[in-house]
Amino acid sequence: MAAWGDDGHKVVALIAQHYLTPAAKKQFDAILAADTDDLTKHDIASEATSADRYRDSNGRRDHYDDTKRWHFVDLEIDDPDMTKACYGRKPLSPDRPASIGDKLACVVDKVAQFAAELEAPGTNAEKRLFALKFILHFVGHAPTVARVRQQRCRRQQRKGHG
Q: Measured in whole angstroms, how far is the alpha carbon of residue 34 from the centre of its chain?
């Protein structure tokens, strides 16, 4: 996945920024302006890498273990099953923020959970920022596609085609 990396996330974020309406850009900028962490710069391109920085931060592996599966979905090509690919698709309880949701959730479910959190009027500023940074990261996530391609390659190798 190193070929995608930060540059890929930044490019997708800049393309997305181009298509934001003025009202959406104003909201986006206001949320990002509240960011005080030192994981990335606070422009849209840099913030697109923030989820990886968060996952790898603090040197204890707890963020990594809690969020590593959120970055992809392993969907079988020959027999696609979203429930299986997303670890059973356990719903997030209404009182639990997406930021501390199930560590076995997949990227598909996390995007939906974080989007719901962004839309909810009662979401506090800290949770709203966290949700925005993760969505910004996930919508440009190549591993979602790369995992499918990787499975396709493995399957072809087992069949003697690679």
A: 20
Distance CA 145, CA 8 (A): 13
User: Cα–chain-centroid distance for residue 74?
Assistant: 14
**Distance between CA atoms of 119 and 88, rounded to whole angstroms?**
25
d(CA 30, CA 43): 11
81 exposed, middle or buried (CB, 10 Å; 0-12, 13-18, 19+)?
A: exposed
Question: Rounded to whole angstroms, how far apart are CA atoms 98 and 11?
Answer: 25
Determine the 3-state secondary structure of 74 from DSSP: coil
Q: Is the pTM of this model over 0.85?
A: no
Q: Is the pLDDT of residue 155 over 80?
A: no
Q: Are 75 and 39 in contact (CB under 8 A)?
A: no
**114 residue type, one letter:** F
Instruction: Please say if the pLDDT value at position 106 is more than 60.
Output: yes
By the 10 Å C-beta count (0-12 exposed, 13-18 middle, 19+ buried), 142 is classed as: middle
For residue 54, the tally of other CB atoms under 10 A from its CB is 21
Q: Where do the domains of the chain lie?
A: 5-158
What is the CATH topology of the domain spanning 5-158? P1 Nuclease (1.10.575)
Distance CA 42, CA 108 (A): 25
